Amino acid sequence: MQIAVVLYDRFTALDAVGPYESLSRLPGAETVFVAERPGPVRTDTGALGMVADRPLTEVTRPDVVVVPGGPGQSALMEHRPLLDWLRAVDATSVWTTSVCTGSLLLAAAGLLDGRRATSHWLARDQLRRLGAEPVEERVVFDGKYVTAAGVCAGIDMGLALSGRIAGDEHAQAVQLALEYDPRPPYDAGSPHKAPAHIVDMLRARSRFILTQEPSS
Amino acid sequence: MQIAVVLYDRFTALDAVGPYESLSRLPGAETVFVAERPGPVRTDTGALGMVADRPLTEVTRPDVVVVPGGPGQSALMEHRPLLDWLRAVDATSVWTTSVCTGSLLLAAAGLLDGRRATSHWLARDQLRRLGAEPVEERVVFDGKYVTAAGVCAGIDMGLALSGRIAGDEHAQAVQLALEYDPRPPYDAGSPHKAPAHIVDMLRARSRFILTQEPSS
User: How far apart are CA A166 and CA A132, in angstroms?
Assistant: First the structure.
């Protein structure tokens, strides 16, 4: 089973590493990081490079596709090399997945038409005009399409998908090995829980958070 | 404020990326990934390379030091280039931190003598013979030393430390931006919660999990 994790300039590292950390431990899995051009790809902060070992053109039939989000997503919504590749590999994939604003790329490729899907809470509404049905859930399964909410939701997605693929006991063993027994120091991880003025502040800065461009 | 994240062969990606994702968003932070030799460093699965942009010798006074864990840690317990560097930067660091078995490296460098500390649940007992006092907590602060439990605990550590450095409101805003509202699909993330036979299985495989070497 081959798992392809797609990298692109200004992706969010944890979007990719969260699901990678569990999915790469599936029995018999071969995980490959891919990008339009192989080599180091910088994350959204600019402070980290992660290596794409193979170009998109060399990975043509992955069983699982993982598309992370991040500010760089906004520059790729009409980028044929990526969208054409997504459509091509989706034709034979067993699972096509995303984390955070990665779902906007799947939708831009036309893969989520009429499907239930989620995204980062600041971006979820964009799914509708791209043809999907936005759902306010942490991880959304619709057929073979699995979309996760913002950044950290990719960890939940990876474990949930691991359970679907290899069974609950395998996924529980991976969860225990990764000591995923979360204790956030604050209860501020969703707009329903965070203090209202912090939610408002992020909404006001949403264009910067999602695209790293100043608000117009 | 400079944050140095240490990479080494066969580290666990999420150990490094978990705290990076929050700490790199501290106001005025410069985050730098360092290793003995700059360039791509492969993670424990072999499937991912992360780039160390600078050699240890060029980063001499970071304010925050982050040491991830992973199977490669076991090969470095007497590795002078790394341990000497840890001792040197600790002399001026504001915070010296670890995730998972990274605490064993801090202890091997003599930095946790008599201090309360934690590690991956399968490795925590090793802290005692290295001079530290093992504590069964998710994130342990002892003076400027901050140690996190296994892998995913680094996310909790990064946010807790962000709160200490930049205040609760900043850390809450980062938590909300990263949508860290965890919903693990199973309640199996600690040995107290996972099914007993899964805990026993991991204990039996602990040598492989911690060092990727077969049990003797």
Answer: 28
What separation, in Å, do the N-terminal and C-terminal C-alpha atoms of chain A show? 45
**What ipTM did this prediction achieve?**
0.97
**Which of A18, A175, A193 lies nearest to residue B181, judging by beta carbons?**
A193
Instruction: Report how far Cα B156 is from the mean position of its chain's Cα atoms.
Output: 11
B38/A contact by beta carbon, under 8 A: no
Cβ(A174)–Cβ(B185) under 8 Å? no
Taking domain B2-186, whether its CATH number is 3.40.50.880 is answered by yes
B43 to chain A: closest CA residue: A21
Residue from A41, A100, A140, A171 carrying the catalytic annotation: A100
Supply φ then ψ for residue B6, to 5 degrees. -90, 130
- Active site (annotated) includes residue A152: no
CATH 1.10.730.10 for domain A2-185: no
> Nearest-CA distance from B17 to chain A in Å?
6
pTM: 0.97
SS percent in chain A: helix, strand, coil, step 5: 40, 20, 40
Cα separation of B27 and B33, whole Å? 18
Chain B within 8 Å of A91 (Cβ-Cβ)?
A: no
The tens digit of pLDDT for each residue in B173-215 reads 999 999 999 999 999 999 999 999 999 999 999 999 999 887 6
Residues of chain B numbered 4-33 and touching chain A (CB < 8 Å): 12-14, 17-18, 20-21, 24-25, 30-33
Contact by Cβ (8 Å): B49, B21 = no
Cα of B97 vs its chain's centroid, Å: 7
Is B151's CB within 8 Å of A194's CB? no
Supply B66's token pair.
């982050």
